Each structure stands twice: as C-alpha cells, then as structure tokens.
C-alpha cells in the first residue's frame, strides 16, 4: 500500500503559507518545517507486556529566518492565527538579535541561501499497514516469538519488540513546496541465558521501509539468536593481538559509521574538529574500498525525499576506490564552507538544532565470495554480532565492541568462539588493510545515532563482508 499523506499537514498548509508571507515582510528569508510523526512500540518479554508511543513521535513547527548575515530559529507546536503568530515570532526573533548585540556576542555569519523553485512530494510503499492490524494481533505474534525463545534450556529472559513509525513532513518557503510521507518498521529479539554459572546475552534486529510483514522476518531469527547465545556461553577470551579478520555486514556497518561517518560530518569541518577535512582528495583506504552515504543511495529507515532544511536527499560517494572524495553536510555548514549541501541536515525533533548527520552509510559490495575469504586466512576470526562503537574524528581512532569472533585456522572455521571482542585501530590503517570485499551487502537500521552523547536520530549502516587486519582485545 502507498503511505497516505498526513491530513493534518495538508489541512494547515495554507495557514503556513500565509505565515511565511507575513514574516517575509520583516526578514530576508523564511522557511518552515512542519512535522507530524507517529508510531507505536510493542514489547513482550517473559515477565511483562507493554505498548507505547514510538520514540520519535512529534507534531510541531520550526521557522528559520535570515537577517543581517545570520540565521535564527523559532519552534512551536501550537498553531494559532497566522497574523498573531507572525507578530509573536517576529518579536521573539528580533529580541534575540538585539540581546546578542547588547551582550557583545558576535554571531557567526552565514551566506543567504539561494533556493531554486521546486515542488515535490513522496509517498513510499509498504506491505501491511500497521493501522489496519489490531494491537492484540501484533502482541499475539510477539508472544509466540517470546514463548519459542523461552522454551530453550537455560533462558533467563527473552524479549520480542516491534516498532511501527510513520513520518510526515512538510517544508515550505517562498520557492520550495515539499511534502513527504514514509513508513518504516523495526523488529528485535534478545535473549539472556545461563549455563554452568556463566551468563550472556544475544540480540538480533531487522528493519526497513515495511509494515507488519516485518513480523515474518522476526520468525526466522529466533533459533539464530539462541544458537549465538549458546556459542557465547561456550566461548573463551580472545588473546590480544593483530589478526586477519573478516567482518560480517553488521560489523562492517559500524566501521563505516564510526570510521568515516562521524568523521566526515561537515559541521565538524567548520569547527576544525575533524581530521578528514585535511584529506579530501587523498587516499585513506584500500583501492578495493568505496563508501556511500545518502537518503536515496539505499532503501532503509533513513531514506527520504528531503532533509529537515528542505535539501533534497542525495547518494554521496564519500570514499571512491580508496580516495576520500567529500563529506556529508547540512545546509548552513555547506554555505559556510562554500560547498554543495548533501541533504544530511537532520534534527532530533522540531525543537532541536540541525546538525550534519548520517543517513544510510555503507561500504559497497565487491567481487569476492565469503568462502574464498575464509580460505585465505591462516589464523584469524570471523567477527559478527556488533554491539557498539565509538570514534575520535579529530585523531581517527576507532573502537568497536563485537559480540563474538569465530576462529579461522588454515582457511577453515574451527568451531571455537571468542567473546567478547574489542576491535581497535587507527582508521586509515584499518581501511588500507582491506584486501577482499564480498559480493553482497546488507544494511541495518534498528538503532539510533547520537551526536556526541545526545541529539538522537535514525540512521542505517552496513555493507559486505570485509577482510582486513585489526587489533583485537
């Protein structure tokens, strides 16, 4: 089915257009982002059942104005008479400009955006509309998944969760008329188990521009996460050292996200907080490596028509056969740097600031077969089940926590498992060591990404299997 447009946004559109007309009497540029995001999260465990709003539910507006070389913003969620609202916004924004001048605080100047006239809409397709399925039907399916997992020996807790979200956004200015409505789903299963006094957990997720049909994908991964849990319960610590490894697509994704995802967010270029700024046009990875980011480069949870500044989404080649080509940017950062915005301006909500943020970030597939990659390793590990990652964009350090590593000796998996595993290294060393790239890629979008320790947004990441050399500990 085609995801319908928000009737609320359609209804209030003429009122927002009138608000823009009134505000343009006082400011050189005005745009308004209108958001209407709704969704539901269902969770069933062995001990409780909950139903609640999806994390990013919101309905509100943010006005952006340009005056005297600077941008300022005003957000609200109570839409009143356009004339009254225009007066209120004008007073608030001009008071802010005056207060900054009175305090002697210099504002960072930004060029006035030169927009082209454009009118576009987007509505994506999903299978089964969550709004046509009762909560009890969804919970019943999750209970069956939970019961299937809990039936295994040694399981202390098993949890099944699914979220359905519908994102509606309207962006208007004197030249732009953009509207989008898209839906996505996220499902996850987790298990905690014990054996011989040892305790561990396993987790697996799935996501996409889908509806209730995602529950069928979850059916297929119950036995998989139980098997991984038992592997971890029988695992040994890894002996620290440098190893040839193969990263599974989920681990590849977190490397892309942490290594050259955050590191090429161009608002960090403006602040001189990213080393990547100095390496544009230079080799930073193996010639076998290419990395993309973009709202239209892949179909996942961060695929959209336009970003939160009204810039159309793109497919940005960040690394092209080892060479760092460009970063990803929001509109204002691009204006300050004199570059073209890439459609990566995202807000946690209408009440929060725009930052340069990732969308769908991934390494592209190569030509190698996984069996050949395994056969090429004398002693190393197949790393899978990523848990978390962090990076230092100023110095290019990276650290990834991985759930387990499957030992490879003389080109064969031995059956021995090590867990947990910490992957660390210097980003260019890691990426330049890539020597094989599998012929299939996969993206994952069930998590959230923070800017520093806050400002959470939806992203996806992934890629193919990569063979590279890293330090494990």
Automatic annotation (TrEMBL):
Tell me the organism.
Fusicatenibacter saccharivorans
What range(s) does the Metalloprotease TldD/E C-terminal domain occupy? 241-458
Q: Which family does it belong to?
A: Belongs to the peptidase U62 family.
Q: What protein name is recorded for this chain?
A: TldD/PmbA family protein
Tell me the SUPFAM superfamilies matching this sequence.
Putative modulator of DNA gyrase, PmbA/TldD
